[in-house]
Amino acid sequence: MWRVGRQLCVQAAGGIRLSGLWNRPAAFMSTLLINQPQYAWLKELELREENEGVYNGSWGGRGEVITTYCPANNEPIARVRQASVADYEETVKKAQEAWRIWADVPAPKRGEVVRQIGDALREKIQVLGSLVSLEMGKILVEGVGEVQEYVDICDYAVGLSRMIGGPILPSERPGHALIEQWNPVGLVGIITAFNFPVAVYGWNNAIAMICGNVCLWKGAPTTSLISVAVTKIIAKVLEDNKLPGAICSLTCGGADLGEKFVRAWRKQCHYWEVLMFSYCAFSRHHFIPVTSTLSAYFETLMSVFVLL
């Protein structure tokens, strides 16, 4: 349905005659933007004609293959293979296994990894911002600004990684003291909408990581390439530090996968210790009072307490 809706907007705006499968403009079906010389920069993000939309330490995907489109002209950019139910289940298990390793890494060292992620994003900020503009439809300065928000929250999280402490309290027993220590909670699910395909993930991911948690991300299907590109950048940093890639996992998919995320959490917290999301159709009817996207600052402060 989201594909059809996007084309109706294009038809209304430009008066383009639609034909063929999904009523897409026939002239646009023959080539992908990623293969055109003016979009060669997409390959700097390691994107291809067909991309795998599942990452849990290795790339894969057994779901349907979708084509992502530029909303400005409805031209196809590239294809992404979505996650199947089996991919989702497998990724959850690998993320839980990765958490046992990540939770044992000292917080300042976790902060160092997050610092490297911020630096890697900073190096790709222009090209990644251009992808946000191309696939989501924001003006370029807003696309770059959204990546900058992720970079900024990484910088903030690095400082927090050396501030996660606990009080030392007096004991009624002679020669003893009570030490309070915060512990990671486990697996954090992050669902993001198409209109903020990078920043919302960044707010939650950076804070979750320094707290010793692992993340599984499901972005909007209309911005699957952005999710893949961001995850590739993070995966390289984790690999360079000899850490499991499943610390920051990805399962691209639509509403059916998002509903599975939420229902699994509501049922018995069988998978999710914490579920973060931006406002969407499902959360409107099945609201979970964990966190909502009010502002970067508010959510960051809230996440620090929720994720410890």
UniProtKB/TrEMBL annotation:
Does the record's keyword annotation contain DNA-binding? no
Q: Which InterPro entries match?
A: Ald_DH/histidinol_DH, Ald_DH_N, Aldehyde_DH_dom, ALDH7A1-like
This entry's Gene Ontology molecular function terms read: aldehyde dehydrogenase (NAD+) activity
Coiled-coil features, chain-numbered ranges: none
Alphabetized UniProt keyword annotations: NAD, Oxidoreductase
Q: Which Pfam families does this chain map to?
A: Aldedh
Aldehyde dehydrogenase domain mapped to chain residues:
64-264
The UniProt entry's sequence similarity note says: Belongs to the aldehyde dehydrogenase family.
Q: Can you name this protein?
A: Aldehyde dehydrogenase 7 family member A1
Species of origin reads Equus asinus (Donkey)
Top-level taxonomy: Eukaryota, Metazoa, Chordata, Craniata, Vertebrata
